[in-house]
Amino acid sequence: MAETLILHEDPRSGNCYKIKLTAALLGLPLETRAYDIMKGETRTPEFLARVNANGRIPVLEIGANEREGSTARFLPESNAACWYVAHGSALIPADRFGQADMLRWMFFEQYNHEPNVATLRFWLRFVGETNLSAEQRAQIMAKRMAGCGALELMNRHLANSDFMSGAAVTLADIALFAYTHVAEEGGFGLSDYPHIERWIARVQALPGFIAMD
Question: What is the mean pLDDT of the chain?
Fold first, then answer.
């Protein structure tokens, strides 16, 4: 019996969407278990004990594999889960440099892009600016500037490349697409980045593409 894949997620999360999009592009079945992070559902004693002691989603639950004699395992962190799902597929380049180049964009996404673009989207769309703490409101301008810087770097790169790493779509595109295509929900104007807009259209045209919930 092949292993089952279960995604513990909040459907509003771009980090969760990355994993669903990866599975969809590969035609792989993926079950989901939904949690509402706004209600603290990933901080319950049961979740912390069974799914992720760090109290965060997404978490990819990799089901038991009778052939290998394995029990269910839990893999947190979105990009690690994408790697697991895509292992052995064309979404991961075959050559050593291609893999490293893909990973550098995935690291860029988590270090430069997501903390700014995704955070402002969460604050402004789901929390509401009037509900932010004084400390959070004080960070808005810095995060907007850093987010614009990340988008501008991507835009310049995509002026000479159809995809983020090489000539074909890879996990680098999936990782960056998730929060980039909804960046306007955080107050970023995508019309300022025409090469990103064309790249978004290319990703949306991929066979198997699914939209974010």
Answer: 95
Q: Three-state DSSP class for 154?
A: helix
- Torsion angle, CA of 15/16/20/23, rounded to 10 degrees? 70
Map out the domains of the chain with their CATH numbers. 5-86 (3.40.30.10), 96-204 (1.20.1050.10)
d(CA 33, CA 45): 17
Q: Omega of the bond prior to 58 within 30 degrees of 0, cis?
A: yes
What would the two tokens of residue 131 be? 């509900």
With 0.70 as the threshold, say if the pTM is over it.
Answer: yes
Buried b (16+ CB within 10 A) or exposed e, 188-210: bebeebebbeebbeebeeeeeee
Query: Could you give the count of Cα atoms lying within 13 Å of 88 in the half-sphere of its Cβ?
Result: 3
Please compute the mean of the pLDDT values over residues 19-27 and round it to a whole number: 98
Q: Which two tokens stand for residue 25?
A: 């592009």
Cα–Cα distance, 119 to 186 (Å, whole number): 8
DSSP assignment of 111-126, as one string?
IIIIIIIIHHHIIIII
Burial of 187 (0-12, 13-18, 19+ CB in 10 A): middle
Residue 206: C-alpha distances to residues 58, 77, 173, 213 (Å): 24, 24, 12, 18
Task: Give 87-117 pLDDT, tens digit per residue.
Answer: 999 999 999 999 999 999 999 999 999 999 9
N- to C-terminal Cα distance for the chain? 30
